[in-house]
Design goal:
The complex is a heterodimer of chains A (214) and B (201).
Chain A lengths: L1 H13 L10 H7 L3 H24 L9 H23 L1 H7 L10 H11 L4 H31 L1 E2 L2 E2 L9 H4 L1 H38 L1
Antiparallel strand pairs in A: 1-2
Chain B lengths: L1 H48 L5 E4 L1 H4 L1 E3 L2 E11 L2 E13 L2 E10 L4 E8 L51 H30 L1
Antiparallel strand pairs in B: 1-3, 2-3, 3-4, 4-5, 5-6
The chains are: A mainly alpha (214), B alpha+beta (201).
């Protein structure tokens, strides 16, 4: 249980796919112009990541190494298409506003990376923890970036006007340079968080050591 | 060696087969709902453009096809208690990121009754703002990009940045959509004139 929790935490902060591994950035910068898009994209990614990791982990012994890549792509593409159809059928507005980025989950390197580096070598249960950690780690960063960009760039949050009418939207934040700026701020925020957590963990370990020595 | 390759091919085929079967089930389960969503959206938009109408007669057969750079996908003669009160044209054309689909309503008074953007493939946050109901080209009057056409006479100017306010940083989208709107409006007007002259004589 402890091991699962640890793996889950890895994706949230220590090995956050966007802020630490820095993969899958292109679509992340593109969809973060509005909070609802960010939530939709984050959850869609988490679903595909979870299903693909578990599936590939379960069949890892029957997948020959020489053709593992095409098989990964088949599995990932199948789950991506399932989520694409489902969103078109049940969340048409969200599906419309995400446009081409849902089908593009197939080639997102976070999924390919986790499947290749993790799921192909591990048991299904720990893959669930890894996929949820990575997926939610991806989602919180997307939603955070999108909240800042949408608020400053359009004066709204999830489509609802929150800034007073006198507020002049700063178009810069909607455009890609603004995306890069906010993204960089999140990287430094994450580094700070990570440093603090490591320090407190080290302090705890030291206190334990002293206890043992005493 | 050949045997080895055959085995690999077989495994790959097996995975593909399972994925295809799975997908065909998902497709069958969602197909009707997806088609339904599109027609529900169209009906809702028609009602929004002409809240007083009680019948939308499909006249696509008389009007469909290519017209001034736009493709007219569907056309409806809008009626109220049997008397025509305008036209609604669903038209598509090329915009910045791919085809855009619009629904343009034209009143019997030769003015645009309203415009709805049904689909756009343009850049999210820029050209895509044509579909965003909370993006205003004119903040003071809270007019959206398609909203500014409501009430505009077809004889007015349609030059972007002079007569039509453009979406910020999306001039190509603004020009493309304006072109589709103008083409649909002209097509609708021509049809209305044709039918009213036939009806009048």
């Amino acid at each position: 249980m402890n091991r699962l929790w640890k793996q889950f935490k890895q994706g949230l902060i220590y090995e956050n796919p966007l802020l630490m591994l820095m993969i899958g950035l292109c679509s992340a910068l593109a969809v973060t112009t509005s909070v609802s898009n960010a939530i939709g994209m984050g959850l869609a990614m988490t679903f595909v990541l979870l299903c693909s990791e578990v599936m590939i982990s379960a069949f890892r012994k029957t997948i020959p190494e020489s053709i593992r890549m095409p098989i990964f792509i088949i599995v990932i593409a199948a789950f991506t298409t399932i989520i694409d159809y489902t969103m078109q059928a049940y969340f048409p507005a969200l599906s419309k506003s995400m446009g081409v980025f849902i089908p593009l989950i197939v080639v997102n390197c976070i999924i390919m990376g986790r499947v290749e580096a993790f799921a192909y070598k591990q048991k299904p249960l720990i893959c669930v923890a890894d996929a949820l950690g990575m997926g939610l780690g991806y989602t919180w960063v997307l939603v955070g970036i999108a909240a800042i960009r949408e608020l400053l760039g359009n004066g709204t949050l999830a489509g609802i006007q929150v800034m007073p009418d006198s507020f002049q939207p700063i178009l810069f934040f909607t455009l890609s340079p603004g995306g890069f700026l906010v993204f960089a701020l999140f990287i430094s925020l994450n580094l700070w968080l990570k440093g603090r957590m490591q320090k407190s963990a080290a302090a705890k370990a030291e206190a334990k050591n002293q206890e043992v020595a005493a | 060696m050949t045997k080895q390759y055959a085995k690999l091919g077989f495994i790959l085929a097996a995975f593909s087969l399972v994925a295809c079967v799975g997908l065909s089930f998902v497709y069958a389960a969602t197909k009707d709902r997806i088609a339904n969503q599109a027609s529900v959206q169209l009906q809702a938009s028609l009602k929004e453009l002409f809240p007083e109408a009680d019948a939308f007669k499909d006249v696509t057969a008389d009007l469909g096809g290519s017209f001034k750079g736009a493709t007219l996908d569907a056309a409806y003669l809008v009626e109220r208690s049997g008397a025509p009160m305008g036209m609604a044209v669903k038209a598509s054309g090329n915009s910045y990121g791919g085809p855009a689909t619009l629904l343009v309503g034209v009143g019997i008074d030769r003015r645009i009754a309203g415009v709805r953007v049904l689909d756009s493939k343009d850049t999210p946050g820029l050209g895509y703002n044509a579909m965003n109901p909370s993006y205003f080209v004119d903040k003071a009057t809270k007019k959206t990009f398609p909203g500014q056409f409501t009430g505009k006479a077809l004889t007015d100017g349609f030059a972007v940045k002079q007569d039509v306010a453009a979406i910020a940083a999306a001039t190509i989208t603004s020009k493309a959509l304006t072109g589709i709107i103008k083409a649909s409006g002209d097509a609708a007007q021509a049809y209305l004139e044709h039918t009213s002259s036939v009806g009048g004589n």
